[in-house]
Design goal:
It contains 8 helices and 16 strands. With 356 residues, it is an alpha/beta fold. The chain has 2 domains: 92 residues, 3-Layer(aba) Sandwich (Rossmann fold), CATH 3.40.50; 237 residues, Dihydrodipicolinate Reductase, domain 2. The strands form 4 sheets. A 9-stranded mixed sheet has the order 15-14-13-12-6-11-10-7-16. The protein has a 3-stranded parallel sheet with strand order 3-4-5. Strand 12 and strand 13 form a beta hairpin. Helix 3 packs parallel to helix 4, helix 4 runs antiparallel to helix 8 and helix 6 packs across helix 8. The radius of gyration is 21 Å and the shape is globular. The two termini are 30 Å apart. Bound molecules: nicotinamide-adenine-dinucleotide.
Length: 356
Amino acid sequence: MDLAVICDLDLELARSRALEFGAAEAHSDYQAVVQRRDIDIVDVCTRDEHDPIVFAALEAGKHCLTEKPVAHQAHDVWRAVALAKTKGVKTKVGLTFRYAPAVAYMNELIQEGFCGRPFIFNGYEQNSQWLDPDNPADKRILTKPADDDPVGGWSALESEITVSSLEGYGAPIIDIGLMATSGAPTEVVGVLKNFVPERRRTNLQQGREPINIDDGDVFIAQLDNGALMTIQSSYVTVGNYPGVEARLYGDRGALICGVVDEGGEWQRLWSASAEAVEFKRLEIPERHFPPGYVAGHGWEETCYGNLIKSFVDEISLGGDTNVGDFTEGARVQEIVNAVERSHRTHGWVPVERGQG
Ligand SMILES: NC(=O)c1ccc[n+]([C@@H]2O[C@H](COP(=O)([O-])OP(=O)(O)OC[C@H]3O[C@@H](n4cnc5c(N)ncnc54)[C@H](O)[C@@H]3O)[C@@H](O)[C@H]2O)c1
């Protein structure tokens, strides 16, 4: 497989990235690129609104990997699921942390029955990237105001808080929770919170202004198999990136997994059983590491290495296998949308589930 084209609105940037990553060409018009017959897979890694490119790629019959969310509303993600099915192509969402070897091993042990019937899943994805209000909310280094800079577009009214951490940071841990519990959420109750009310908007601003975004959130979900799920996501909670912690407690055992860069290590897994309740650290088997992994590789190349290998194998081997696809992205987005509704209505809300 060859990296054929790097496409960016900024052609100079596309050119320099093409040189850096060995792509044959650089382009600035994604519409033209996705129509090309020599392209099989499109990887959508633009900033926010991924769906226009996702739909264009699927329409053109390309396999599609996209950063989360596929679309902000779950019903639009389901439309993408249906289109991919019609076109006979495979999909994948950048739910990066399910590809961490420690998480993959945790999932394998759960599937083998190590925890037994799931009771409670606790998930966290937290770090302190935006604790400092002078760290611009927009992390791009701008030299002039950007066209999509939401000047005045962020309401300071408490009731109009914008979903942020829940979708960007909560999504991967929600995904891990759904995998770990094998349950379907029936209802949720949650709160979105703005802990740092004034920030610099971009690197071009010196002063701070009210920016009412969800920089921390907590929710509880009830699942159809009787399990409970609690999730906390935030980018203003002290700790290092990526800050993932997943705990599953069942009637036979429990597993605790951490994906946090600390003390020269970035992943850990512990287990305890009903008979031996003291948690012990587990070795993560080599089979969960990507090809080419060597000690010292960080979470980025390891998780992405596994993700890309998984997608390329699924496409080249054929068959029905397609993990972490848009269907799973839609399930995650259903929860994100339900938690937002719960916040706005101050109560438990049902999770509206689509077809899959
Ligand atoms: N999965 C993860 O662990 C992880 C980690 C970091 C970022 N992300 C995601 O990756 C995505 C990109 O993040 P980033 O920090 O690199 O953003 P960025 O803003 O630095 O880069 C995005 C690029 O997309 C280009 N672009 C925007 N619209 C385009 C269009 N229509 N056609 C072509 N190019 C277009 C922009 O010019 C920009 O260069 C985001 O969705 C982010 O959430 C995921």
